[in-house]
TrEMBL record:
Native organism: Marinomonas balearica
Listed InterPro entries: KH_dom-like_a/b, OsmC/Ohr_fam, OsmC/Ohrsf
The protein's name: Putative redox protein
Lineage: superkingdom: Bacteria
Length: 135
């Protein structure tokens, strides 16, 4: 896996991923997200991927899965994440809460590389979920 990041100006950078996508990164949030926001987005994407796949394999009729990710950072430099909260809102038809709980737990404890890497680095990650019935 590769990515190259090139400085554009001030605190604006362009990243090109090994899969050919471009992402603008900007510390001032004028041309793109800040670098630490991308870490949260990566975590949210990684764990959501797991949760949705587990739910689909469990034959749950998922219509929507949103991971709301928010974090606290240290007050001193380096301003690392100290706690990250991931809250899933899973919507669907006759979704079993026990299956959602299992999917979230499996992602957090076994499958999500981003989550496991951050936790091993000392970040406390708290997972929660809610199930919304839709017609």
């Amino acid at each position: 896996m590769k990515t190259s990041v090139s400085w554009q100006q001030d605190v604006h950078f362009s990243a090109e991923t090994g899969s050919g996508f471009n992402v603008e990164i900007d510390g001032n949030q004028e041309a793109g997200p800040r670098p630490m926001e991308l870490i949260l987005a990566g975590l949210g994407g990684c764990t959501s991927y797991d949760v949705v796949n587990i739910l689909k394999k469990s034959r749950q009729d998922v219509v929507s899965c949103i991971a709301h990710v928010d974090a606290d950072r240290a007050d001193t430099v380096p301003s690392v994440f100290t706690e990250i909260r991931v809250h899933f809102v899973v919507s669907g038809r006759k979704i079993k809460e026990s299956v959602v709980a299992r999917a979230v737990k499996l992602s957090a404890e076994e499958y999500c590389s981003a989550s496991l890497m951050l936790e091993r680095g000392g970040v406390n990650i708290v997972h929660s979920y809610e199930v919304v019935e839709v017609e």
